[in-house]
Structures are given as C-alpha cells and as structure tokens.
Amino acid sequence: MMLPTGKITKYINIGKTRTGKLVFKKHDLSIDWVQKSVLSSIKKLEKFYKIKSPLINLELVYSREEFNKIVGRETPEWMVAIALENKIYLFSTSIVEKFSSHKKSSLKKIITHEICHLFNNKLNKNILAWVDEGTALFLSNQEKPEDLKKTEWNFFIKNFLTKNIDYQSFCTHNGYKISYWAVRIIVETFNRDMLLNLIKINLKKEQGKRAENIKK
Q1: N or C: less crowded end of the chain, CB within 10 Å?
Q2: Domain boundaries, the chain
Q3: With bands split at pLDDT 50, 70 and 90, how would you rate the model's confidence at 211?
Q4: Global pTM?
Q5: C-alpha span between 13 and 198 (Å, rounded)
Q6: Arithmetic mean of pLDDT, 32-39
Q7: Residue 60 to residues 21, 27, 66, 167, 216, Cα–Cα distance (Å)
Q8: What dotted CATH number matches 7-123?
Q9: pLDDT per position as a tens digit, 156-201
Q10: What angle do CA 18, 24, 27 make, to 5 degrees?
Q11: Which residues contact 63 (CB under 8 A, 6 or more apart)?
C-alpha cells in the first residue's frame, strides 16, 4: 500500500489476534531492526504493566521539517520522537544523527519510551504528566544519576505533583529528570503496583471531586 507521503505500510503481529503497523520509506534498511525493537519493547512492557499491549502504529520520519509539521511547532534538537493520539512518530536511523543530537544507538530506548506512553494512555487518558514521563524514562532506562536542587523538588511538589502545568514550565524546571527520580523512588521504596495505581489516577475525575467538595 503506497501512502501519499511516498511511504509504505508493513503490518506486524503483536499478538495472536492483534496487528500493528510500521510506516516507512520503501528503501529504509533499518525497518527490520525497528520491528525487532518494537516487539522486544512490547514483551518487556506487557510484563511490567500486566496488560496486553495497545495497538502499535509507528511512522518513521525523515527530516526535522517533516517532524515539525507533525508536531505543529519548531522542535528542539534533542526531540526525535513523539506519541500523538496513539501513534508514534520516530526519526529514522538513516537521518537521526544528521538532524538531532542523538546517536543511532539511543533509538532502542526511545522506542521503549514512546510505547510506554501508549501503555499509560491505555490505562488512563488523563494521567498526571510527571507520572507519564517518569514511568517512560524509568522503564526505558534513559536517565543517569544526578543530584537535583532542593528548589527544583520544591517546585515539583508545589506545581505538578497533583496537577498538570504547561509543557514549557515542565521542561524549564527539570520536570523530566525529577519525574524519573520520583518514579524510581516509588518503585524501589514500595513496588510496581504502587506505580500502577498512580498511573490509574484520573486527573480530571480527581479535579471534579475537589470541585464538588468545594461547592458543598
């Protein structure tokens, strides 16, 4: 099947009765590696989440301009993948080192990270941003040990522990790294089930309950 973008679709089996899709340029030699990485990530994440994988729809991107059009804005050099409405867009290994600060070897962890978001979304479409990002970073093993400032932790507790703030504020206040450490501490101090319970907290429902209590 030829797509308007000059790409083709390959269907992959992710279960006995479930099929995922990979969309890519016909002569992209990395597609077999991408497929193996997707299936490997699914196997790992199904074991952690204790649920069947959502359907995977992954499209490879071949330039920063194409990626910016997909996201709808200029994107930073480090950004090479995004999960939007249950679809993952990912830089191809053929161009990732040319158009970003990433090495090809980093894409396996990035694939796992983005598939995590699909698992989280399957459990809860209104997940807290720090739980969503922290879980993805933790399960893809993307962060390294680093001290965080007390002021950063204080901002986290005050501003996005129980609510979502805008993306820019999340980034500028080290939201990704703090989220990783918060999730890691929860899993290592308590257990996986504690994290799974946090993932299932519906932010909109909780806000609605608080609003009702205020009215009463």
Answers
A1: C
A2: 7-123, 129-215
A3: very low
A4: 0.89
A5: 30
A6: 96
A7: 11, 12, 10, 24, 51
A8: 1.10.390.10
A9: 999 999 888 888 889 889 999 999 999 999 999 999 999 999 999 9
A10: 125
A11: 95, 99
Query: Which of 28, 209, 49 lies closest to 117, judged by CA?
Result: 49
Q: Give yes or no for residue 123 having a pLDDT over 80.
A: yes
Nearby residues of 154 by Cβ (< 8 Å), 6 or more positions away: none
Average model confidence (pLDDT) for the chain?
A: 90
| Cα–Cα distance measured from residue 91 to residue 67, given in angstroms and rounded to the nearest whole number | 8
Would you state the structure tokens that stand for residue 189, as one six-digit string? 């101090």
Q: Tokens in use for 155?
A: 């901002």
- What confidence category does residue 210 fall into, taking pLDDT thresholds of 50, 70 and 90? very low
How large is the angle between the packed helices 192-199 and 175-189, nearest 10 degrees?
A: 130
- The DSSP secondary structure of 80-114, one letter per residue, reads -EEEETTEEEEE-TTTHHHHSS--GGGHHHHHHHH
Tokens 């680093």 map to which residue? 146
* Dist CA 129 CA 135 (whole Å): 10
Q: Which letter, b or e, does each residue of 55-85 get, where b requires 16 or more Cβ atoms within 10 Å of its Cβ?
A: ebbbbbbbebebbeeeeeeeeeeebbbbbee
